[in-house]
Amino acid sequence: MDFSSKLLEQAVAEMSQLPGIGKRTALRLVLHLLKQPATQTQQLAEALLDLKANIKLCKNCHNISDTEICEICANPNRTRELVCVVEDIRDVMAIENTGQYRGLYHVLGGKISPMDGIGPSQLTIKSLIDKVKEGEVKEIIFALSSTLEGDTTNFYIFRQLEGIEIKTSTIARGISVGDELEYADEVTLGRSITNRIPFESSLKS
Amino acid sequence: MDFSSKLLEQAVAEMSQLPGIGKRTALRLVLHLLKQPATQTQQLAEALLDLKANIKLCKNCHNISDTEICEICANPNRTRELVCVVEDIRDVMAIENTGQYRGLYHVLGGKISPMDGIGPSQLTIKSLIDKVKEGEVKEIIFALSSTLEGDTTNFYIFRQLEGIEIKTSTIARGISVGDELEYADEVTLGRSITNRIPFESSLKS
């Protein structure tokens, strides 16, 4: 694209570094900011810089936090015996929204993915194993998305836990509540039959 | 959404003020920045602040420019007799990309749209009329998109020019080059028949 302004070109170039934002979208966003009062641009820039400079990762679960220990880990009403292994803060938010989980989390920061150059050492796996070895944790719940990378990561952690006495579980896969069986994919439907649960249990939730 | 961090919440709130960026997309963009080196966030913030603080509008055509008079208006090889009326810099860029236009532009900064509270006084219409009155311009080419707002704006300017001797024209509407007739909408196809041109002229371009 041939911009009439180096300033505009630079802003568009930086904006289009964001994932999923092409040059055209970046131009639209930047032109929108130009039409708005200067305070909006300032507040956006400050919020991003402030976040990047001051964000912390919880020392216990590695979730994004404003404090050394995040609110969830600091909550005395949550059981320390359950640890749910997730990829990032979005998974934590999704599970928290259900209101069904009273344990803690362990945020890996990604999944093992040789294609993207992400190995076990870039994730917080060692910290998880160390935490388990301390003995307070009774059950690890794997809640990574069920992709090749997710399954690989689960299995890697599972192997690391060998020899340590701890219960491991994975969240149930099955047909979404409200979905029609005929449109479900075969793998999901197969798993939901294999992992069927006593009818009485389904009445509780 | 329930964020575990005020800093994160603030950054997502600011990012989601941008048009077409919802809370989920904003979170994805902000988490991406968090994973990147701090320089990327700094460069983005600086580019936006620098643009907003230092951008100029060309005194002649009101296009975005780093200088008082933009490159196009300052170019002695371009004819001052033709002025193409467009909405914003994206239209200028699109027309410049064709390499077919050697006149100047006049950037309105929007279209008349009572629904959005945009009246003629918020656009650079008066400046266009004043420019025409100076006498150097021989033809005004309307190139706004042919929507209700575009047509209203064209007509408003056309009425303002009444009594001034000047040629006005509008860019041709018709079937896109390479498109099949059967898929064209009726209005466009109708216009392209009504505004047919001598066959010899079509051989030139």
Automatic annotation (TrEMBL), chains A, B:
Domain of life: Bacteria
Record keywords, A-Z: DNA damage, DNA recombination, DNA repair, Metal-binding, Zinc, Zinc-finger
Keyword Zinc part of the UniProt annotation: yes
Domain Toprim intervals: 81-176
InterPro entries in the record: DNA_Rcmb_RecR, Rcmb_RecR, Rcmb_RecR_Znf, TOPRIM_dom, TOPRIM_RecR
GO BP term, example: DNA recombination
Zinc fingers (C4-type) by residue: 58-73
Molecular function, one GO term: DNA binding
Keyword Zinc included in the entry's annotation: yes
Cited function: May play a role in DNA repair. It seems to be involved in an RecBC-independent recombinational process of DNA repair. It may act with RecF and RecO.
PANTHER family assigned to the protein according to its UniProt record, in alphabetical order: RECOMBINATION PROTEIN RECR (PTHR30446:SF0)
Family in the record: Belongs to the RecR family.
Protein name: Recombination protein RecR
Organism: Gillisia mitskevichiae
Gene: recR
